[in-house]
Amino acid sequence: MLTSPATKYQRFDPVKLPNRRWPSQTIEKAPIWCSVDLRDGNQALAVPMNVSQKLDMFDALVKCGFKEIEVGFPSASNTEFSFNRRLIEEKRIPDDVTIQVLVQAREDLIEKTVQSLIGAKQVVIHMYNSTSPAQRKYVFGKSKEEIIAVAKNGAKLIKDRLHRLTESGTKVTLQYSPESFSATEVEFAKEISEAVMEVWQPTPENKMILNLPDTVEVCMPNVYADQIEWICTNIKNRESLIISLHTHNDRGTGTAATELGLLAGADRVEGTLFGNGERTGNLDIVQVAMNLYMHGTDPKLDFSNMNGLIEMYERTTGMTVPPRHPYSGELVFTAFSGSHQDAIKKGLNGYDDHKTIWDVPYLTIDPHDIGREYHEVIRVNSQSGKGGVAYLLESEFGIELPKDMQREFGPIANDIVDSLGREVSGAELKQMFWKEYIERETPFSLHHFHADGVDGVFTCRCSMVKDDREIGITGEGNGPIAAFVDALIKDAGAPKFEVVSYREQSLSSGTGASALAYIQIKTGNGKLVWGAGVDTNIELASIKAVVSAVNRTK
Ligand SMILES: CC(=O)SCCNC(=O)CCNC(=O)[C@H](O)C(C)(C)COP(=O)(O)OP(=O)(O)OC[C@H]1O[C@@H](n2cnc3c(N)ncnc32)[C@H](O)[C@@H]1OP(=O)(O)O
Ligand SMILES: CC(C)C(=O)C(=O)O
Ligand SMILES: [Mg+2]
């Protein structure tokens, strides 16, 4: 039996912040982004990336527009160290990109980290130690004062070595993370951060980064926002700090926590592509950036080749992007269901007319903006309706079914798709359409048709096969179609009917015929039936459409 949660777990105490301001703020501009793919993402992989995979990813991150990239934990392994050296020695870091490295507050590790950075143009040295009650108790077995001493000592060890970088021209920014910040008492997080600030002495001209991680997501995003606002309001010398967010996704709200944290006053966001990272992952930066984009704010990151980015990510990390992953997943712009397809199709047509503000139902952004095609948007299975079927026929083959004919063919296609029990392609739908309308050759099939006339009086002569027997028929009317209808009823024994609707269209090359005609007839007992015919000759296409409609009355 499951333990009662009340006896095993406890609610996370919210921060006391009665006059919180973040709920009425809006995000007006992109934050400073820092990708931690090559460190936090990498450390969470069963098989971490090798140097060449890390180089590939580094280049891709630069291409997306990241100006700050945490490239690794150089004291962790030879791979991590030599990756840094290759980036620096091979001059692979663009002038406007800063590399960031992570290190614990330990002397040997700090020493190695500094060595790994010699020769770089600009770097962020990111030091962390963990501060929550559970970490203090279990991992370090230290009091609050002793944990502060670990942080101050690490900060000093770094400070003492800075001249080795700055003297050779490297610009260094310092970053401190009270790891497990969101599970730490805010007063203690402030105290330890201020202790590090005392050592590093940041100024408004030479700021340090204070990164406040939701190392393990333990609370609701509004609580994280309260914590961030509390720190922003209460910490000394706020103007000398760049407040940075670093969320994980244990409760599934990493994106929300980051966005609310930005409302609460943060300046900077750390995260990874597609949310790779420890356990349930880091914040997915693509999501937050695209959320800004869909509100009309330039995210200052370029995800216009989303498929290329996914290919690189999957190749280098061995991870996959789930099909429902916001913005990037394979199915996130796809509608299978009928009413959604109908609305999207109408919305896309409407957008084509005005081309101003994107307002297509069910699509948060224009899929083209991230390099996706419209043919991925509407896909047909048994949940689909006539709109989806018509969309595929039109977008893939230029077949523009009259609206009323869509109502007739939609359910026919739906029954077939339902019995197949799978998704169908546009080509299969075309085949269904051809079988249902164009290839209907019994009981009547046309062999030869000829009509001539003047001043609204036409005569036609045709040969047909009826029930496997060749017959010749003639008729008269005010046009070739009317003459043919007369011949069919009078000489071929077709039941009485009249043509009530007619449309024709030309087809693009490659479809095997240049004209497609649609005819709707009304039989003697009032039944409405559509027919369709194709031919290189438009007159013959319409005559064939009449035959198709008559054959379909049975
Ligand atoms: C939330 C995060 O993502 S933090 C980043 C985590 N990333 C990584 O750990 C990846 C890279 N890490 C590594 O390769 C290794 O852990 C190394 C090289 C950093 C250290 O290796 P080792 O010293 O062999 O082992 P290990 O990590 O187990 O060391 C733990 C010790 O460091 C101490 N420690 C842990 N974090 C810190 C810190 N930030 N500052 C100071 N000491 C720390 C622990 O208390 C523990 O001390 P103890 O040995 O007295 O119990
Ligand atoms: C090192 C820190 C910033 C970290 O990755 C975390 O707390 O999640
Ligand atoms: Mg992390």
UniProtKB/TrEMBL annotation:
Q: Which residues form a coiled coil?
A: none
In its keyword annotation, does this UniProt entry include Ribosomal protein? no
Cellular component terms (Gene Ontology): cytoplasm
User: What keywords does the record list, in alphabetical order?
Assistant: Amino-acid biosynthesis, Branched-chain amino acid biosynthesis, Cytoplasm, Leucine biosynthesis, Magnesium, Metal-binding, Transferase
Quote the PANTHER family the UniProt record gives.
2-ISOPROPYLMALATE SYNTHASE (PTHR46911:SF1), PTHR46911
Subunit architecture:
Homodimer.
Which NCBIfam families does this chain map to? leuA_yeast, PRK03739.1
Please give the HAMAP family that the UniProt record associates with this protein.
Answer: LeuA_type2 (MF_00572)
Q: What is this protein called?
A: 2-isopropylmalate synthase
Species name? Brevifollis gellanilyticus
